[in-house]
Structure prediction request, 354 residues.
Amino acid sequence: MIIEQKLKDIQNRANEIEAQMNSGQVSGTELTKLSKEYSRLSGILPLISEYFQVTQGIADATEMLHDEELKSIAAQQLAELNHKLPEVERNLQIALLPRDEADDNSVIMEIRAGVGGEESALFAGDLYNMYKSYALRNGWKTEVIEENATSLNGYKEVVFKIDGVGAYARMKFESGIHRVQRVPETEAGGRIHTSAASVAVMPEAKDIDVVIEDKDIRIDVFRASGAGGQHVNKTDSAVRITHFPTGIVVSCQNERSQFQNKATAMAVLRAKIYEKQRQEQINASNASRKSMVGSGDRSEKIRTYNFPEQRVTDHRIKLTLYKLDDVLAGGQGLDEMIDALTTADQLERLANLE
Prediction:
């Protein structure tokens, strides 16, 4: 069968890569490339082995049906294996779905306060702390790129990087409008207010992913303001970059030197251009259907955090968890939400292949 030959080809490829890596004859970039491919295949190999075990078991049990002494045992085994096979096949099909080429990338995230004034800024800060804690749990590093903080420790805007392999795969469904329903500390009457913040998640782009011509950008430098030490008021260290073809403007002033700020701003610009190109491709291929888990557009309402009921609801997959504190702490509740979104996306893509 074609599918079985494909599975055997994957097993053979994994053995070939393992032999190459153990030979000591590859190093540097090539070794990194092989290691990444082997890591991806190694997650599929157990599913392939299970598939072959089940199908071989079905074949053996079918053969045993012709033996009068073993017929009853064979019939029982056959029923169990035939019941198990669809789940094994589905898990294998999901594992074999084409991967998003950016899944292994680090991410750059933007959180912006929306309607709701200071309460919205405080909620933006809650979201930032949630993602920072989640990154820490996963062993990823976080780095603030740009921030506009308020006097009450909220954020009108915060841009930050989460550096870690596979960060984009876990964070990509967080893009959109997040709403909060709670009684603000400044509310004397105890009334519940609704405010919102938007989140954008972009995979970090490499130089090879996005080529930026010097003629297509303008770089402005200006004096930094806010926290960061005495130097911020003495040197023109902040950098703003305008990309003419797309109209994208990015800035950075959190680093101590103009050179560092320029490098960081260029990284953000590459990520934004890369994500814009990716979204255009996705929109073109998905023009005839609306994705269950959304388009990744930061204007789409995706989740509500209700404090009085300790409830978090993701509107895309109709999932409600009564684990608000755990989710906001970047705990297992957030993992549960992300896992459900990932599964929904996989099942949807699988359905569109059938």
In short: Residues 227-233 have pLDDT under 50 and may be disordered. The radius of gyration is 25 Å.
